[in-house]
Amino acid sequence: MPTDNQQTDLVDVDDLDRQIIGLLQEDGRMSIQDIAKALSSTSSTVRKRIRRLEDANIMRVVAVTDFSAAGYELLIAVGIQVENRRPEDVGHELAKLPEVFSVNLVTGVSELDILVAARDFAELSHFLHDKLPKIAGISKLAPGLTVDVLRYESGWVSTV
């Protein structure tokens, strides 16, 4: 049952909404007036659209970490096989570690996939050899070092 903060009606996202979201993804501090000017719209229309998108939980403006600018030189995706423990419990424990940026329950060979950021190989080694073994239920790791990020989309799910 929806709470007071949840929108119960489906909201159609049209081209103007997508353009507003696109501009805010480029610059989350862009003023409503600048968005309206860029889209040949009115401030009132843009303000109403943003409020509607936020109220429907379709969009929210947040700060997103640029891994490289924050000093992280290494990104590693780790597939994790779990034994003798619920994957959800292991995942919640992993989510508490500051090096872990993403925890996903998945199907396939692994039960969990995590995304880990490290400043250097020493930090990565400490995480893999000292921190992960302390978490009960992890039976196997399948790490994969990111060599290049071809696309990173933090906030938009395509409707196509």
Q: Notable features of this structure?
A:
5 helices, four-stranded antiparallel beta sheet, 2 domains, 32% helix, Alpha-Beta Plaits, 160 residues, Arc Repressor Mutant, subunit A, alpha+beta, disordered N terminus
Note down, in words, how this protein is organized.
With 160 residues, this protein is of the alpha+beta class. It has two domains: 41 residues, Arc Repressor Mutant, subunit A (Orthogonal Bundle); 72 residues, Lrp/AsnC effector binding domain/regulation of amino acid metabolism (RAM) domain (Alpha-Beta Plaits, 2-Layer Sandwich). Helix content is 32%, strand content 19%. It contains five helices and four strands; from the N terminus they run H-H-H-E-H-E-E-H-E. The protein has a four-stranded antiparallel beta sheet with strand order 2-3-1-4. The chain is elongated. 14% of the residues are buried. The N terminus is likely disordered.
Secondary-structure element pattern, one letter each: HHHEHEEHE
The CATH topology name of the largest domain reads Alpha-Beta Plaits
- The chain-level mean pLDDT equals 86
Q: What portion of residues is helical?
A: 25-40%
Q: What is the SS-derived class? A: alpha+beta
Number of domains: 2
Strand residue percentage:
15-25%
Tell me the distance between the termini: 28 Å
CATH superfamily of the largest domain: Lrp/AsnC effector binding domain/regulation of amino acid metabolism (RAM) domain
Major beta sheet, strand line-up: 2-3-1-4
Q: Judging by the overall fold, what is the CATH architecture of the largest domain?
A: 2-Layer Sandwich
Alpha carbon gyration radius: 20 Å
- SS field, number of helical segments: 5
At the first level of CATH, what is the class of the largest domain? Alpha Beta
- Overall 3D form: elongated
For the secondary structure, the number of strands is 4
Largest sheet: 4 strands, antiparallel
Poorly predicted sequence stretches spanning 5 or more consecutive residues: 1-8
